[in-house]
Amino acid sequence: MKKSYQSLEVNSTNNMKQVTRRKLGKNILQLSLIFLLTCSTSLFAQEGDPAKGKTLFNTNCASCHGLDRKMTGPALRHIEQKLADEQGLDREWMASWIRNSAALIKSGDDYANKIFDEYNGVAMTAFPQLSDQDIADILAYTAQDAPKQEETASAAGAGAAQSGEGGISNKLVLGALALLFALLAMALILVRSTLNKFAEAKGVEVPEDEKALPLWKAFAKNQFLVLVASIFLLLVSGYYVYGYMMQIGVDQGYQPVQPIHFSHKIHAGDNGIDCKYCHSSARVSKTSGIPSLNVCMNCHKSVYEYNGETTEEYTKEFYDGEIKKLYAAAGWDDSEQKYTGESQPVKWVRIHNLPDFAYFNHSQHVTVAGIECQTCHGPVEEMEIMRQHSPLTMGWCIECHRDTEVKVKDNGYYKKIHEELSKKYGVEKLTAAQMGGLECGKCHY
Amino acid sequence: MSSNKKYWKSVEELNESSSVVETLKHNEFVEEIPTDEFLGDKDALEGSKTSRRDFLKYVGFSTAAASLAACEGPVIKSIPYVVQPEEIIPGVANYYATTIANGYDFASVLVKTREGRPIKIENNNLATTHGGANARVNASVLGLYDSLRVQGPKKGGAYISWGTFDEETSQKLNEIKDSGKQVVLLTQTFASPSTSKLISEFKNTYGNVRHVVYDAVSESAALDAFQAKYGTRALADYDFSKASVIVSVGADFLGDWQGGGFDSDYAKGRVPTNGKMSRHIQFESNMSLSGANADKRVPLTPSQQKVALAKLYSLVVGGSANGELPEAVEKAVQNAASQLKNAGSKGVLVTGIQDVNAQTLALAINEALNSEAFNTTSPLLIRQGSDKAVNQLISDMNSGKVGALIMSGVNPMYTLANADAFAEGLAKTDLSIAFSLKEDETSSLAQYIAAAPHYLESWGDVQFKTGHFALMQPTIRPLFDTRQFQEALLKWTENTATLNDYIKDVWTNTVLAGTSFSQALHDGVFVSGGAQAVTEETEGQDRTLVGGIIHDAAVGLGLKEEDQDAAAATVAGISASEAVRALAAATSSGLELSLYPKTGMGDGQQANNPWLQEFPDPISRVSWDNYLTVSRADAEALGLKNEHVATGALNGSYADITVNGTTLNNVPVLIQPGQAKGSVGLSFGYGREAGLKDEMKTGVNAFKLYQGFNNVQNVSISAASGMHEFACVQLHNTLMGRGDILKETSLEIFNTKDKDYWNAIPVVSLDHKETPVTSPDVDLWDEFDRSIGHHFNLSIDLNACTGCGACVIACHAENNVPVVGKEEVRRSRDMHWLRIDRYYSSEVSFEGDNDKKNNISGLGSSLSEFGEMEHPSDNPQVAFQPVMCQHCNHAPCETVCPVAATSHGRQGQNHMAYNRCVGTRYCANNCPYKVRRFNWFLYAENDEFDYHMNDDLGRMVLNPDVVVRSRGVMEKCSMCIQMTQKTILDAKRDGREVKADEFQTACSAACSSGAMVFGDINNKDSKVAHLTEDNRMYHLLEHVGTKPNVMYQTKVRNTTEA
C-alpha cells in the first residue's frame, strides 16, 4: 500500500514537471522577444548570452546580489538600463566598477562613492578576470524580465489538481469495494432468512445437535490440551513481554517535531552539502555538534527563499516561512540586510540520546575510522524529517565492533600494534573487537 | 630484609591492655549491634497492622509503578549557540594559563575549561616558580560556583547598581578628601606591579591615602628581619633541592610557611640518587607535614625552639648561648649544628618562629653557611603584611582619623583577635567599602559590599619573586554583576582604560622589555632576565619596579616616607649577639599553644568549599573539623580522652582553652602523637560564621587567640563535659600486623646491602620449597600477554611524597567524586577514590630505651622501669602512602562479581561498569586494599547532601566526560581511563604513536613533587618503564599475588647522625 502511494506521488510530480516545461517554452519565446528588443536599443553593446550569463551570475555574483532583491549589494535586474536612465552611466563605467570598484571609488567618482557609502562602506570584490563578453553575458541575464507569478501559481495548481485526482480515484475504488462487500453480506443474510422462512413454512425442522458439548467445555475437559495450550500461551506471552521489555528505552524511529522544519533531504540530499560542513565538531570532538545559527546564516544570508521541488505538504511558502523562522532566531533583518542583535536560540529536540553512562566519541569513528555518517544515522540525505535510524543499543554497537575492520592505513598510531596483534591472532586484518573494542571500560566510565 | 618496625594506626593499638583492639581482632564491631532497638519491641511488632504480606504487596506495586513510569523517555532539548565562539568546540577542552593570588595562595596554574566553564585546576609546567597547585588551589575552582557569592553591589543589605555605587562613593571620597581625613586601603598582599601603580595613582588623586597590607596569617617578623638586613620588604627564597642538610626550627616549609610552594624542590633532593639524598632535621612542637617527612624529628616547645635556634647559631656561626634544653634535645641540636657545618654551602636552616630575633638569626646562619639553597637577590614578594600597620590602623579608626576604609581580599572581623575593636573603629568611619566574594563577617558590617569576581573571572598580575612574573586572565565571563578592586580604583581615578589594557600597558612599559604580551599571557608566566641572573644590566630595570613595591610596603607599614629609614635603622639595630641573648632567655611556664594553618583550610577563606572540608588532614586524618592537638602525657594530666565507639569512629573530649582572658569553649581534643610535651596546637581557618552553608560551619575560630599576631600563646586548659564526634578516616581498618605494607629502610642499608636484604620479594611454599610469589609456578591464573599495546602502570615514590594531598582534590575534581558530609564520613562511607594513608611508627634504635631495657633485672624492676620508660608514641616517625585502586592483573574483585560489572582491560586497568553493578558489594569485601567505594545514597540533586552537587551552580564544575554515579553502585579509581583514552584518541587522530610520558592521570598530573609517575610500561622510553626496574620498587601486599599495576618505591630515610 505504502509503495503504491509513493509511486502515485512520483507520477504527480512528473506530471507537474511536464506542465511547467510546456509553460516554460512559451516563456522563453516571450523572453527572447523582449531580449531582442532590449539589445537593439543599446547600439554599441556587445550582444550577451543570457544562459551563459546566468551561470556566471550564479558563480560570481549571487552570493551578494539578487535580481529583484537588495542583499549585500543592490538588486541587479535591469541594472544597465537603470544606470543609463538614472545616472547616465554606460557599460564602460560598469566594467571598470566590476573589475576594480576600489580604484573607481578612489578616483573620486561620485556615483561610485555614493553606492559605497550606501552599502555600509563595503567594497565589492574585484573581478578582473571577467572579460567584456562575460560582462555582457551577465548583463544580458540581468536584463531579462521577472517571470510572472501567476504562471508558476497556475502550474502548481495544476499539479495539485492532478495529485488530488489520484487521491479521489483511490478512494472511489475502495468505496466501491466496501459497497460490494456490504451488498454481498446483505444478500447472504437475506438468503438465510428466506431459507428459514421456507423451512418454517414447509414444516421442515432444522435438526439441532443438543447433545454435543460446547467446544470450550470439551476443551476444558481435555487436560492435555489445556496444558499444551497454557504452555503455548505462556511462551507466546513471554515472547511478547520480552520483546516489549527489550524495546523500552530504545527509540529507533524517533522522529520528533522540531521548532524549525529543517530538511536534511534538501540540504544533504538535493544540495549535496557535506554533513561535516555543518556538524564540523564531529571531526574533532565527542559530540557532532548541532550547528550554531551563524553557520546556517553563512548560506541563508543569500538563500532567502526555497526554489526546489515542492509537494502538497511542503510548499514553497512553507519552506520560506521556515527560513523566516531562522531569521527571527538569528536576529537577521532580511529587508535591512543586517543583524538586529535580538536573537532567540533554537530549542531543538534532541533525537539521538545516549545514556549518560555510555561514552561515545564522534571523532574516533568519523576521523580515525573514516566511517560514513550514514552507517549509523541512515539515509539522512533522504529524510525530510530527521529520525533515529539505528536502535543505539549496546548489542548494536558490539555487533559493529565485532565485524568492522580497523582502518589502519597511513595511521602511525596503529603501525606497531597492528603488526603485533595480527601476528598474535593470525589474521590479516583486525576487527575493532580484537583491538580491545569490546572492553567495558572503553565506553563506560 | 626491610626494617622490622611495627606500624600502627592509632594510639589505641599501642595500649596493650586496650579492650577495643582486642575486641576488634575478633569482631567487626566493638559493641553489640543494637538490634534490640528495632526487633526488641515485640508489642509494637505484633501490634502493627501492616503484615509482611502487605509490605511485600506495597513493594511489588511500587516497583511495578516505578518501572512503568520509566518506560516513557523524556524529551531532551539541545540548544546550540546563536554565534559560536571561534575557540569553543563542544566536547573539546580549552586550557588557559592564569594565576591564583588570593593573599594566601599564590600559584601559576592551568585552567581546564569545557564549553566555556572552568572545571579543573592543573599545574602550569612552564612556571619556574610556584607552578605547583596545592590542595587548596586545586579546590579553588569550586569557589567560582559558590551559590552564596554576592551577586552585585550591595548597600545596607539591598542590591544597588554600580552606577549608584560609583556616584555615592566618589562623592563621599571627595568629601573626605576635602575634610582632610585619611582614606585607607586595607588589602591582602597583591604582589602585583599593576595594582601597586594603580594604588599610587589613587594616592595622587585623593592625597591623604594610606595602603595597609594585611596577611591573615602574619609573616611580619620574617619580613621585618629581611627588610632590616637587605632593605627590601620581602622574604628570602629557598631552593631545597640544592641542600644536602636541611634544618628547620619550627618552620613547616612543606606546608604554608612563608607562602609555601617549596615542596617540589624539597622532593627532588629526597629521592636517593647515586646513593645520596638530603638529610632533614626538624625541631617543632606540633606534628607538621615537614616534621612527618623529616629524617629526624625533635619535638620541643616553642620557647625551647628559641633556645635551640640560639644554640644552633652559636654552634654554627660562633659566640655562646645560654639556656637550658633537655639532654636529648641538646644532643640533637649539637648534631644538627655539626651536620650543618659539615655541609657548608650545602646546608640550609629555616625557622618559623614569629620573632624578629629568630628570623634575623636564621638569615645570619644561612649567610654564614653561604648556603646555595638560600636566595636573597631574588626574594619572595608574596607576603607583605605588617602587624604594626594594622594595629596603627585600628587605633586610628577608633580615634576617628580614618574617613574611608576600603577593603579588598581581607576579612579582619574573622581573622583579627581584636575584631571588636576593629568593628568599633569601622562604625566610626564615614565610608566603608568591602570588596568581597561573600557577605562574610567583615563585608556584612561595611556600608557597601562591592561584589568582587573570583580570580577565574579576573585580570591581574603577580610578581612571585623579583623578576618572576605571572599573569591572571579571566577564564569565564563574570557569572555575576561584579567588579574587581582594581577596576574600582580605575573608576575612582577617572581612568577610562579597561583593566586588561592597563595591565598590558604596565607590562609593556616595565616588565616585558620588548617581548610579546600575548606570549606572556599564553604562558601565564614571564621571567625577566632568567631565574639566576638578577645581574647588573637587569637590576636597574627590576629596581624601578621593586622600588615601587618597597615604597608601597613602606607606606603600608604605616610610616611616612621620612620615617622609613629611621624605622629600618631600629630594626637593623638588632645585632646577632643581642638576638641570641634574647632568644636563649626564652622560658615558659605552663602550656604553650601553637597556632598553625591546616593543610586543607589555610587561612579559612575557602571554608565554604565542601571538597576542602571533606579533605582529611594528612596528619590527623580528621575531616570537617579543627581540634586542639595535645600530647598523650598532657592529655592524661588534664583528664582529656580520645576513644573509639561501636562504629569505629573517633570521639574526643572537649576542653575550654583560655589565652590572656579570651576563652574558647568546647574545643574538641585530639591526642596527637609527636606533639611536644608542654605544647598544644590549634589550627586556623575554622569556626567561620558568615557566608557559608550550615554544613560548613565547623570547628572553632583560632584567630580569636591570635593576639598580637603571635602564633605562640601561653594557654590554660580545662576539660569540659561531653564528647566530640570526629569524622576521622583513620581507624577504619586495623593493620593486622602486616608490616610489609610500607617498606622502609635507611640510607646506609640502602647503599651497602643487597636489594634482597631490604626489599625482598615475599616467598610462598611450593613443594616445601620457598618460591618467590612472583613466580608463575605458584600462580593460579594463566597470565594474559600484555606486551602488545599499552600497559599502564603508576609508580608512587614514598620518598618524594610529602602527603600534601593535592592529588586527593585533583581526583575529586576530575572524577566527579561526591562529597558525603561529616556524618557519613564518620560512618566510614567516605568516597575518596584516592586516600593518603598515614602511618606512625615507633623508632627502631632508641638507644636509651634499649640500654634501660637490657638492664632490667627482676619482675619488680621491670614493672617500675617499663612504666617509667617513655611511651613510644611520643615522637613517632611518620610515613605517607597514597592508596588508590591497585588495578591488579589478578584482581580478587573481578572474580566475585556476580554480574561481571568489574572486569579487566588489556591495558591494565580494572574497569568498573557502573550501569551493570547491582550493588552486592562482594568486590569491596574481597578487595585486600579496601579501595572500593559504595554509593550508599544519591549524592547529586539530593537535599540531604547539600553540597555543590545539589545546586545548579555547583554542578557546573562536574567533568562531562565522567558519569555521575547513582545510588547503590560501587565505584573506584579508574586510573583516569577517560584521560588515557583521550591521549590515545589524540594520537590516532594525528596518526602518530603516543609519546613517552604523554599519558597522565589526574593524580600524577597534580603531583608537583614527582612522587606519582604514570605511563605505559610497554614504551621503554617512558619514565615509568624505568621505575618498574628500580631496586626500590615493590607492590602493596605482594604476597597476596594480586599483581597490581600500581607500584611503590621503598622509603629510604637518611638516618646518618653527625
Can you walk me through this structure?
The complex is a heterodimer of chains A (445) and B (1058). Chain A is built from 19 helices and 3 strands. Residues 1-22, 35-44 and 150-166 of chain A have low confidence and may be disordered. The longest helix of chain A has 54 residues, at 149-202. In chain A, strand 1 (332-333) and strand 2 form a beta hairpin. Chain A folds into 4 domains: 42-147, Cytochrome Bc1 Complex, Chain D, domain 2 (Orthogonal Bundle), CATH 1.10.760; 213-248; 264-405, no CATH class; 406-445, no CATH class. Chain A has a two-stranded antiparallel ribbon with strand order 1-2. Chain A is mainly α. Chain B is an alpha/beta fold and 1058 residues long. Among the domains of chain B are: 235-380, Dimethylsulfoxide Reductase, domain 2, CATH 3.40.228; 596-728, Barwin-like endoglucanases, CATH 2.40.40; 739-843 and 882-1053, Alpha-Beta Plaits. Chain B is built from 37 helices and 44 strands. In chain B, the strands form 13 sheets. Chain B has a 7-stranded mixed beta sheet with strand order 7-6-18-17-16-8-9, with helices on both faces. A 6-stranded mixed β-barrel of chain B has the order 22-28-24-27-26-29. In chain B, helix 11 (263-270) links the parallel strand 11 and strand 12. In chain B, helix 9 packs parallel to helix 19 (485-492), helix 13 crosses helix 14 and helix 15 (356-369) crosses helix 24 (576-584). The longest helix of chain B is centred in the middle third of the chain and has 21 residues, at 536-556. Residues 530-572, 844-851 and 867-872 of chain B have low confidence and may be disordered. Chains A and B meet through helix 13, strand 3, helix 15 and helix 18 of A and strand 2 and helix 35 of B. Strand 3 (348-349) of chain A pairs antiparallel with strand 2 of chain B, so a sheet runs across the interface.
